[in-house]
Amino acid sequence: MVSAPSGAGKTTLIRRLLAEIRGLHFSVSHTTRRPRADEAEGVDYHFVGCPEFERMVKQGAFLETAEVHGNRYGTASEEVDSALARGEDALLDLDTQGAASIRRLRPEAILMFILPPGVQALRDRLTRRGGDDPGQLRSRLEAAGREVAFLPMYDYCVVNDSLDRALRDLQAIIRARRLLRERMPADIREIVRGFDAAGVTPRT
User: CA–CA separation, 186 vs 39, rounded Å?
Assistant: First the structure.
């Protein structure tokens, strides 16, 4: 699960991760907001109306929900659980509010925070991106400060001062997670069983 302030490069890093790591499933969130011109249904979000979203809430279909700027967002349990059942890792893009919900419901989840190299660097990135007046820019920076305050909740922090280096760091986290003993794939378990069958494993 990945969080980051706006302008930290999260979207670019997630796209690179999905392109370069096999067995990684991006969990597409549901939202009540209208799609932007460059967004596609089922790729960027599942776009639903408010009545449909509320119906899913009442059915307990979401792991977490949040309201941002008057629009609602939710992570469907079925999409995450289906990916895990296939042996894939589910990658979620959530804000700190959603991350806190996931931490409560799925304490085994790995939370990763992408941090910009500094306030000025973030200000410069947001300015280059354009579209915000000075008041909106200030609001985004203040929102970033509130999000950074949640950093102690996360398991890992990656500073995106170099896109390639940040990508390698995120890849390392995912690969290390896959090498945990309790997640041993079938071929490794077979190797261990071979040692046991050969009678060279100490008996307790």
Answer: 39
